[in-house]
Every structure is written in structure tokens, then in C-alpha cells.
Amino acid sequence: MFENDPVEDLDKLVTELRLDARRGPDEEGFDDSRLIQWLKRVRDLGGADLLLVSGAAATIRVRGAFVAASTVPLDPTHIVQAVAPLLPTRLLERHRAGESVDLAFSRPGLGRFRMNLHYERGRPAAAIRALPTTIPRLNQLNFSHDISVLSRLPRGLVLIGGPTGSGKTTTLAAIVAEMNNRDQRHIISVEDPIEYEHPHGTCLIEQIEIGVDSPDFATALRAAVRQAPDVIVLGEMRDPESMRIALTAAETGHLVFATLHTTDVASAIGRITDGFPTERQNAVRQELAMALAAVLTQTLLRTVQGALTPAAELMMVSYGARQHIRKNALQHLNQEITITRKAGSFTLEESLAALVRAQKLDRQDALMKAAHPDELTTLLAG
To answer: Could you give the 3-state DSSP secondary structure of residue 161?
Structure first.
């Protein structure tokens, strides 16, 4: 199956491998034995990612180290033959047009995976992330402070920020699972792609996948608010229209969760307002001040034992924070976090200090990650 001849016509090869959008990846005609071997190796090693790059062997990332999953360097043919049959027609067309595409898939006995198929130096490449076989509970995520307060909020907008690979999706899935084990709510999620599949528990959960169940986030959100949800989960707020609908839903009594690629509380709020035209930003700040309930930002750090653990910051929005948002005085939000500790807020420095005290993080590493090193120094001296 995997000859070493160069690809003469990659476009033709992709066309030959095209699947009808109605046909699932497990149907007759999909020989995925090599990919299955690699994915099984990922699971056996407890790996995080399978990386397929032309000119290199299939590689597995295991706790930050690279392990070869094959002995022969891959060429574009190998990569396309391995992964193209997983793609529905719409994603194959986007990939052929030169776009990077994302999807989630499952394999029997191996669980679910998330794949990004992209190009590097004009050649296809893929990164496949192994997703947990079960949805973790919040207390299994090893946050230094309790964040379950987010699952008990009755309404409002909750932002979960962090860089790529920081565990935002996993945290959000654990929050939904917390509600699903305790409350009776109608939860609608809008995702691209669906990564964690939630069973119906005490909650009724609908999961809408972009490109499969709805063409885009804005269309899915507009439909969701008409479907009597108690909770709306938005995989990511990518455009002003999605942001506007999410704000409106939060203002009208829904609990709305959304993720953003931001690094701290102030930048998460700024990201929302900056997504709108300048002439609309002041009005959006007023709406955001009313709708926002909480902001959680997180990043994953490697512990001295070699594992990964989250360092986070949580601001439960108070009257003071709303005033700062209205005035665009976001530099004062850090002090609001300390003022609202009793409501569940905590700073990044408090999170880092807890990790140092628990001997999970080296003091110097923590100081390098701190936004306010002087505050962390004071906390560690106390």
C-alpha cells in the first residue's frame, strides 16, 4: 500500500479516495489498517499526538518526547492514503483547495481522535490528537482551585480562554458533564468538530456539528436560541455575528459558554470588543458588562514529575468588574479578582503558588509564567 514513488498527481489521488458525504468511515472500501496500527500504538504508549509529515517517519508525541511509529519516512502518498478516506466530501474539497481542515473521528476499540489536515511546503501533513476515552470529571483535571462554581451559574456568558492545546475543550466538556450528572437542563452545543460525545444523563444534550448539522456557527446559534435551551455551549466565537448572538442569548437568561484563544482575563474581554467595528465597540462593551458572568483562562505546564497540569485564573464578574468593562479600564480587572475571592475568583499567581507549594512546579519556572512576578514572590513568602 505504501510505495516510495513520488506522487505524480496528488489531486487525482485525493479524487480517487473521495467518499460520498453520506458514507461513514467504517464502511466497506476503507483500508485503514496502517492508520489503525499507528493509532493503536498511540493508545498503547499513552501518547498525545500522531504527527504525519512528509520526509519523516510517523511520529508519536509521548509526554513531550517523540517516538517513531514507523521505520520508513512518509511521502505525500502515504499521508493521503492514510487519512483522506476519513474526510467527507466537503472537507476533501476544502483540502484540495489548499485549506487546513479539522475533524473528529472514532475507531472501534480506540476511542475518539481529533485531526488537523494541512499543507507544509506544498505537501499534505496531519496532526492527530488522541482524545480521552471518557469525559473527565472536573476534580480529575487537577486545577489548583475549585472551578465547579461555573457549572452552577444560572445565566450569563462564561468565557474560557487559553492558547491552542491548553485544554479549553476538555475543561468545557468536564463542566458540561458536571451539569449532566446533577442538573435537569436542556444543553445545546455548537462545535467544529465534535470532540467529546456526551450521553444523555440528568440533562438533555444536543450536539450540533458545523458542516454536518449546520453550515456555520451563526446559523446554528440562531437556531439554538429558538430551541428552548437552558445552556448553550459554543466551541469557539469566531466572528462578530456569533459573538452578537451569544451576547444576546446571555442577556436574555441563557447560560452561554464559549472558548477563545486568549491568555488572560483582560485579553479575553478585549478580544470580544475588538471583534466588532470601531463604531460598535462602545455599545458592545455595555452589552458585555451586563451579560458576562465569569472568565476562566488557563494554560498547561509541565510539572517537575513530567506530567501536565493547568495553571489558571478565574474572575467571577462583580459590579466593579462591570464598571471597568464599561469604561474599557481592563487594566484594573486583576484587582477585581482579588476582591471577589469569596465568590470563587483566583489569580494566576495564586494558582502558580499552589502548584509550587504542592511541589508540582519549580519556583523559578512559576516566576517565569507569572503575569505579576512580585505578587507571586509575596505569596510564596507568606
So the answer is: strand
